[in-house]
Amino acid sequence: MTKEMTKTCKQLLDTFYASPRTTNVEKLVFSGVGSRDVYNITAPFPYDGEEVILGRVEERNSEFSQVFFFTCQNEVWSPRIHTHTYNLQDPCVSIIKGELIIGGVEVITAADNPLNIVSWVTQFYRGFQIDSLCHFSSGPGTMKDIRLIELTDGRVGIFTRPQGTRGGRGQIGFTVIDSLDELDEQTFMDAEVLRDQFVPEEWGGANEAHLLKNGHVGVLGHIACFDELGSKHYYSMVFSINPDTCEKTPIKIIAVRGDFPRGPGKRPDLEDVIFSGGIIRCSNGRAILSVGVSDAEAYQIEIPDPFIEYEW
User: Fold this and answer.
1) Predicted pLDDT of residue 174
2) Judging by beta carbons within 10 Å of its beta carbon (0-12, 13-18, 19+), is residue 163 exposed, middle or buried?
3) How crowded is residue 185: how many other Cβ atoms within 10 Å of its Cβ?
4) CA 156, CA 282: separation in Å to the nearest integer?
5) If one looks up domain 3-311 in CATH, what number appears?
6) 3-state secondary structure 168-232
7) What is the pLDDT of residues 116-149, one digit of tens each?
8) Among 94, 114, 287, which residue's Cα sits nearest to residue 208?
9) How crowded is residue 196: how many other Cβ atoms within 10 Å of its Cβ?
């Protein structure tokens, strides 16, 4: 993809709205967390005979959150009993060599003011059982949206999100290692930045990776921008990448805030925000996308499978 082909959020939205699709939307109902909001959920995954999701649980006026494991009964999601919670934001999950990999963002506060968030670090835990996960890796300071995936040959693909000198407001990086045992902070720092995905004023990140039938990786993520008033606009997007060559397809938007009913938001500047959490591909050409909405609610939306075209 050349720089001239890099599309802005507005251009991608024009393409998105030009192709209407049929959707089915469901708001997720939670209990057992008091008055706190649950949002930025993962897609459900099977574990020990039931479906499990991870969710960010947080007071409306706070950024200090916990990640809970939830299970569903009678269409209500409740905390999994006797299960550890993590002081993290924005959980993610993957399976590598049969092992459960859980990640999330830990906020770092000022030494003299525990309410002042000065940085954040992505933390990773691994294990074959939910109840015996062990910390095994930390990302670099201020890097969110790190995601891991097992590739066809057993190696591990790693998506990163550098900012600043290398990444501006946020680019997507990618690298491959032979095994999780090689994962360290330098691995994240050295990942190749995927150029020309975002114009300099905008940013994005990977939220989940899927191994496709042809060995390529389908990436679910977000693309975002500010408007002239300083409000944020986040959209769900996808692209695919050849892990051997880093050749990638153009980004396409697959869901927007307008797909969901009006509802509460954490702040007025976050009203037009959806955060991709995960996607389940169905056998009928459809897919179920899990998202956080306006940093206050969690939804699932059935859409056409956005990865099918990448497998042709």
Assistant:
1) 98
2) middle
3) 14
4) 24
5) 2.115.10.20
6) ECCCCEEEEECCHHHCCHHHHHHCEECCCCCCCCCEEEEEEEEECCCCCEEEEEEEEEECCCCCE
7) 999 999 999 999 999 999 999 999 999 999 999 9
8) 94
9) 16
Q: Which residue has the tokens 């996808």?
A: 238
Count, residues in the chain: 312
pLDDT less than 50: residues of the chain: 1-3
- What pLDDT is recorded for position 3? 47
pLDDT at position 5: 81
| pLDDT attached to residue 4 | 52
Q: Which two tokens stand for residue 74?
A: 């009678």
